[in-house]
Write a structure and sequence with these properties.
Layout lengths: L1 H14 L4 H22 L2 H14 L2 H22 L2 H10 L6 H22 L9 H21 L5 H18 L6
């Protein structure tokens, strides 16, 4: 609790720092700490609450870079905690980015996180005999497809599909085969 109070104070103070670069550096560092603390405690609410507060306090110049850092933190939380909610939050926040290159790059990261989560869900025993578990396992893949369609231009989708295939193949080499 005391750490959280200090983080809140640090966010408020860092938002008042004069100069864009020093402010962005301070906020980025704080978001890294918040992400690590949230992952350690499994507390997505901490991450979203502080991140939202931070973004509300900033002006447009530093808001974009801070939002990118928040999205990366949400993706990291989602990957580390197997949290589809965190990846969904990250994916939805990409649409707030003004820079199309950064938006596409972070959408790509969300897609890869969805694919990785989907792969891990397929390790659940009984998946082939229980339709509700199969639906649960398929959900991240369906969300990856939706993010691909909504956030990536048609002429760039093949590249992302190839990357998603690589994620699946890489994941497949790290697990023991399931007996079917």
């Amino acid at each position: 609790e005391q750490n959280r109070d200090l983080i809140q104070q640090a966010v408020a103070i860092s938002c008042m720092i004069k100069g864009d670069l020093p402010r962005i550096d301070a906020i980025s560092h704080i978001i890294d700490i918040i992400t690590s603390l949230a992952i350690r405690d499994g507390d997505l609410d901490l991450m979203t609450r502080i991140s939202n507060w931070c973004l509300e306090l900033l002006e447009d110049k530093t808001k974009e870079e801070t939002l990118q850092k928040v999205i990366m933190g949400l993706i990291r939380f989602g990957t580390d905690q197997s949290s589809i909610i965190a990846i969904n939050l990250a994916s939805s926040r990409t649409y707030e980015l003004q820079n199309t290159k950064n938006r596409k790059e972070l959408t790509r990261s969300c897609i890869c996180a969805y694919i990785s989560l989907g792969c891990s869900r397929f390790e659940v025993r009984g998946i082939t005999i229980k339709p509700d578990i199969l639906e649960w396992a398929m959900e991240p893949f369906l969300l990856a497809i939706a993010a691909l369609r909504e956030g990536i231009p048609p002429d760039e989708r093949m590249q992302i599909l190839a990357l998603a295939t690589d994620v699946i193949l890489d994941y497949e080499t790290t697990i023991d085969p399931l007996p079917y």
